[in-house]
Amino acid sequence: MPASTTLTAQDRVLVFAPHPDDEALGCGGLIQHAVAAGAQVRVIFQTDGDNNPWPQRYVEQRWSIDDDCRRRWGARRRQEALRSVQTLGLRAEDAIFYGLPDQGLTRLWMQQDARTLDLHVADLQNFRPTLLVVPSQDDNHPDHGGSYELVQEARKRAGLTAVRQWDYLIHRRWFCPEASGLTLNLTLQQKARKLAAIECHETQLYLSSTRFCAYARDEEIFIPNPYA
Length: 228
Hints:
Number of domains: 1
InterPro entries: GlcNAc_PI_deacetylase-related (IPR003737), LmbE-like_dom_sf (IPR024078)
GO molecular function: hydrolase activity, acting on carbon-nitrogen (but not peptide) bonds, in linear amides
CATH superfamily: LmbE-like
Low-confidence stretches: 174-179
Organism: Prosthecobacter vanneervenii
Protein name: LmbE family N-acetylglucosaminyl deacetylase
Number of helices: 9
Structural class: alpha/beta
């Protein structure tokens, strides 16, 4: 990690994950770096990933999925998220769950939903992060773009516009990461622990194991946000 981006025990790192698994896929190495530095880390899961029909159909061998099915699936994914953050070195209480509508974050941002923004503002003001880690606005998944916009609006309302922000991208590959991004190199041990955290999300591995496990690479790439 370059000297200018070194984390210390004085840092307070707040990670936003639109769904359970994004924390491991996009930031599993960074979370380990922060923990090793003695920084305080919180992970906010904005949705429970409950609107996830194809893996649920496969696992539960059912076609019709109603509200009760989705709630059960969301509860299962929360438990996976808790195991993941603990694998990365955090405590269960370092995970915060908003339970917002999966596939609905962009809609909530466009509506400027008061409850949703109040949740974000309250945690920003209470935790007072020195570093925000947020999905990129260029991510192809609408919940990731919506997550980005919600955090930008909330940080303005919380008066935290000067706080550092690093953006991570999951649903589109970098074209030239060396030129545009901040590269975080992982040790073999960190890479193995990141893979173990990804594997905690077992509901997502039934249909996408190869794709998910491929995120346990030798490096993670973040874009320092110049507008934040």
